[in-house]
């Protein structure tokens, strides 16, 4: 029998709670749902008012993975959807996760949450910049931290303040609040930063995706600033054997990792996130401070 629970006045049917989703730790779907309910106050501001794309992995990372932008079949009528500009589907709509019941409903589908850099009310007008630092083996997140420190200073020189989070996979993301700016302009600026970094740190950075160029270096992926692209939402679990979270970290942790060379220190699993929230609060809260938003030069 499928358990039914009430979340903030909404009745939800939750399925397969004992099913193991992350096999490396035996993490079950019930534990996954508990995680999202626990961190709801932190993740919801990063989801709210943004059309959400889902990477679904209902049978865990070793099962079928599929990416969807359309509202999944059976989406409840009370879950908010919004029209989105898509050339392949002029009348397309996507889900928005506006409240805790919607978050738990989506988590029950077993998903990664991915969001664009713009809000539904202003498509293709970004309110943040993102740089995705992706290491090519044998490089690790240690090299990503070294590149992140360089990019932090470079952004600061333009009056833009960056905040780091783990990707939940191998790398690191840098996020920066912006005054509303067309996505095309943000993409062009981010590309210039990547090209500059590759020129200034040629032994460490590449700005092109070509795999042959990437071993031992960090690919600075600027493409996620394009209006059609999305990035793993802060606090989302990733479809990995370990229940790793794309979670914010401090610049001190980034500097220590860059100096100390231990990539494991920035692998944050779901059990580590609630204590970090108690200690630090949301390290990415400045993304919502409009007075701190930078402007592109």
From TrEMBL:
Q: Which InterPro entries match?
A: LigD_pol_dom, MtLigD_Pol-like, NHEJ_LigD
Query: EC number(s) on record?
Result: 6.5.1.1
User: Does the keyword NAD belong to this entry?
Assistant: no
Q: Which Pfam families match?
A: LigD_Prim-Pol (PF21686)
Going by the entry's taxonomy, the superkingdom of the source organism is recorded as: Bacteria
- Where the record annotates domain DNA ligase D polymerase, the positions are 28-283
Which keywords appear in this protein's UniProt record, sorted alphabetically?
Ligase
Q: Does the keyword Ligase apply?
A: yes
CDD domains with a match to the protein in the record: MtLigD_Pol_like (cd04863)
GO molecular function per UniProt? DNA ligase (ATP) activity
What name appears for this protein in its UniProt entry?
ATP-dependent DNA ligase clustered with ku protein, ligD
Q: Which organism is it from?
A: Streptomyces laurentii
């Amino acid at each position: 029998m499928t358990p039914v629970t009430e979340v903030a006045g909404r009745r939800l049917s939750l399925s397969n709670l004992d099913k193991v989703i992350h096999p490396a730790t035996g993490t079950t779907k019930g534990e996954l749902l508990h995680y999202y309910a626990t961190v709801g106050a932190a993740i919801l501001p990063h989801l709210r008012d943004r059309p959400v794309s889902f990477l679904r992995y209902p049978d865990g990372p070793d099962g079928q993975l599929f990416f969807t932008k359309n509202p999944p079949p059976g989406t409840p009528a009370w879950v908010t959807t919004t029209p989105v500009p898509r050339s392949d589907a002029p009348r397309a709509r996507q889900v928005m996760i506006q409240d805790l019941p919607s978050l738990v409903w989506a988590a029950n589908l077993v998903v990664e949450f991915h969001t664009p850099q713009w809000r539904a009310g202003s498509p293709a007008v970004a309110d943040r910049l993102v740089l995705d630092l992706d290491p090519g083996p044998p490089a690790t997140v240690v090299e990503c931290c070294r590149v992140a420190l360089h990019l932090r200073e470079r952004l600061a020189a333009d009056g833009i303040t960056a905040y780091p989070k783990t990707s939940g996979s191998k790398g690191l993301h840098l996020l920066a609040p912006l005054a509303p700016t067309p996505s095309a302009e943000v993409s062009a600026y981010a590309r210039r930063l990547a090209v500059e970094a590759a020129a200034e740190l040629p032994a460490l950075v590449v700005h092109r995706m070509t795999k042959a160029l990437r071993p031992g270096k960090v690919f600075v992926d600027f493409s996620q600033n394009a209006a059609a692209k999305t990035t793993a939402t802060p606090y989302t679990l990733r479809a990995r054997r370990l229940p790793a979270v794309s979670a914010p970290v401090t610049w001190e942790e980034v500097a220590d990792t860059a100096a100390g060379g231990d990539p494991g220190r920035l692998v944050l699993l779901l059990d580590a996130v609630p204590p970090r929230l108690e200690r630090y609060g949301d390290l990415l809260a400045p993304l919502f401070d409009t007075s701190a938003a930078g402007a592109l030069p």
